[in-house]
Amino acid sequence: MVSYASVLLYGLGGIVVAGMALLVAFQEKLVYVPVLPGLTKSYPITPARLRLLYEDVWLRSSDGVRLHAWFIKLFPDCRGPTILFFQENAGNIAHRLEMVRIMLQRLQCNVFMLSYRGYGDSDGFPSQHGITKDAQAALDHLVQRTDIDTSRIVVFGRSLGGAVGAVLTKNNPDKVAAIILENTFTSILDMAGVLLPFLKWFIGKSGSKGPRVMNFLVRSPWNTIDIIGEIKQPILFLSGLQDEMVPPSHMLMLYAKAAARNQQCSFVEFPTGMHMDTWLAGGDGYWSTIQEFLEKNVSQKKDGDSTRKDSEAR
């Protein structure tokens, strides 16, 4: 007769096997969602629909993948900060255009919106290794431009975009002036237990109490918690306390890790902000927070300094 202990053991074994199978087969589909349900991969609108001044930019990542981006200017000769924006994991850059339209006006900036590989009009298939290369290609393009102040490039990443931006900022201390993180997770390893609770006993990063026997299966761990403490530039953390996707505690852990080594960190909470709408729920306070951060850390240089740098770039 089979004992209850044996049944329990077999049951736990089945859960582990099922979890491993899910991770191996479907993890990219869980982490990266280029196409929202009921929609297509293509852009539903372009910046022209919102009467924004923009150009289509085509890039090649270092591994040869063809990438698409929009470079949107407030006006042709705008020398304000240039925001390199990295989106969340779902949908494409067109779904962020309304927010970007307001960003342009409130921050008096330019915005570069990159489509990760496999998203929008970009070729390829998303992965951590590949998207890291995509982000570097976008930054390399910006620093070579002569129509912007390349000393005022600021990375802005929301959710997955924060993980992407953190890696880029850490790797480019001389090219990125500052970084803004909004509703970003500590690690995909930690998020696995949030999205699939039974996995928290077998996979995790920050504060995990389980044996973590399945961590090695994760191909896109995005361990932001390991990266954030190595960033030397100013960091602004924007946290929506009603975030229904990423627990707000993740942002607190990231801030604590960063602030222990970097005195140029600021943390701001928005009580009614959810995962995707903190920029909307935060109202004027949201934009004034970012504006103050930029004025403090990415101030405009004297005309002589800016002109000299542009001449050197040419």
Distance between the termini: 82 Å
Query: Helical element count?
Result: 10
Shape, per Cα inertia axes = globular
User: In order across it, which strands form the biggest sheet?
Assistant: 1-2-4-3-5-6-7-8
Give the radius of gyration: 21 Å
Q: Provide the helix percentage.
A: 25-40%
Strand content: 15-25%
- Could you tell me the number of beta strands? 8
- Biggest sheet overview: 8 strands, mixed
Q: List low-pLDDT spans.
A: 304-314
Mean pLDDT across the residues is 89
Main structural class = alpha/beta
SSE series: HEEEHEHEHEHHEHEHHH
Keywords: Membrane, Transmembrane, Transmembrane helix
Domain Peptidase S9 prolyl oligopeptidase catalytic: 132-275
Transmembrane segments: 7-26
Pfam families: Peptidase_S9
